[in-house]
Amino acid sequence: MRERGLGQDARSPRSLRGLRRGVAVALAATTVLGAAGAAAPASAAPAVTERRATAALPRPTGPYPVGTTALRLVDPGREDPWTPGRTRELMVSFWYPATRPAHGSERAPYMVPSAGRHFGGPDGAAVFNYGAAPDRTDWTWVRTHARPDAPPLLGAGPRPVVLWSAGLGDPRTWGTGLVEDLASRGYVVVTVDHPYEASEVAFPDGRLATSVFPALAARPGLDIGALLRKALAVRVADTRFVLDELTALRTDGRLPAALTASLDLGRIGMVGQSAGGFTAAQAMHDDPRIKAGVNLDGQLHFPGPDGTGAFLSSVAEDGLDRPFLLMGTENPDSGPYADQPGWAAFWRHTRGWKADVTLLRSRHGSYTDAQSLLPQLARQGAVPEEAVRGDLGDVRPARAVLATRAYVASFLDRWLRGHDDHLLDGPSPRFPEIRFEK
Q1: Residue 220 dihedral angles phi and psi, to the nearest 5°
Q2: Backbone angles phi, psi at 106, to 5 degrees
Q3: CA angle 369-370-374, nearest 5°?
Q4: What is the pTM of this model?
Q5: Would you state the torsion angle of the CA atoms of residues 200, 82, 14, 364, taken in this order, to the nearest 10 degrees?
Q6: pLDDT-based confidence at residue 215 (cuts at 50, 70, 90)
Q7: In angstroms, rounded to a whole number, what is the distance separating the alpha carbons of residues 23 and 3?
Q8: 391 exposed, middle or buried (CB, 10 Å; 0-12, 13-18, 19+)?
Q9: How far apart are CA 118 and CA 126, in angstroms?
Q10: Which residue of 32, 170, 280, 284 has the fewest C-beta atoms within 10 A of its own C-beta?
């Protein structure tokens, strides 16, 4: 979810940039995000009397068509940290270059129906994180540009692998525009859901795992800092389990041999937004299999028990010895590394290649699918204009999307492929909305 950071002041619980708006409010004042707790059968579609809004993702810019397939992963040796008595299970999706493009109804839906109904419903992240009107958007109608279960494109040899981590409470789909673009450029991207933290996660048997955070927020004396530390630890453990599974998948037959053969596990990168960016940095710190990482506006410190103060993570204290890109926004609590305690410590201690850029006139949601989808929904009355401005600022949506794609791809190409377009050498006249921090 969105991280409302402590900034330099570090006094307001509502400013926790480790949290998105819905959970920040939930933790500070017991407002809920999502239905509490356990995996439940998918609910029936709500009765909607007016026409629901729709939106479209921007097209990928790479030369390859895109395929996608989803997979349930089970970690038999780990109890679910959020729901005791259950074995930890995850949902992931693979996005990869495919043999031919998808058209019309062939394109994979943005969300499966049960997840889309919850995400856009009164208890879902679209309402609490982004101010959307409940049940006014048909999230299942939104289509990706990928063909479900498409045959992978062969002939190029193994491809670099990129893990994608969404913000705290957001589903793994809430970054599909960037993910599809990377796949169209020749990467295999693996998007990871974190059940019982995310607003909702749909499993193949029809279960819908909804967030436990509302129930946790209702407990007296909640230690906000401890909860966020636990959330990060769970995310890092999930990430490392996915890395283990990528090795196992190459030989156990759960995915087509052509897809698993395309995984170059010697060239793994990770990209995340908000808490997902924090996860990318911390997972890279803890696991040497990740060779390069990008943090899209995610803090690298924790608050204290009451939500105030700034306590450094181990990745901020130790830094990294491999390449890492920080991409900030002009959210009041973001900006350059010098303005953020976790980023400042990380910058001082990192020995590997590093860069820090800021997307001007942006806000925290500008690195998510909100940047392309919310303005379209606002024009149809499904999201208030003030919510759009608060989440996205006034950067032009098309330019924000283009810049995000260009800088993330340039970084990954440089460090996972050895192709340097020199975009990260310094300020570029192609992208006046990007400021390099010194």
Answers
A1: -65, 145
A2: -70, -20
A3: 130
A4: 0.91
A5: -50
A6: confident
A7: 9
A8: buried
A9: 9
A10: 32
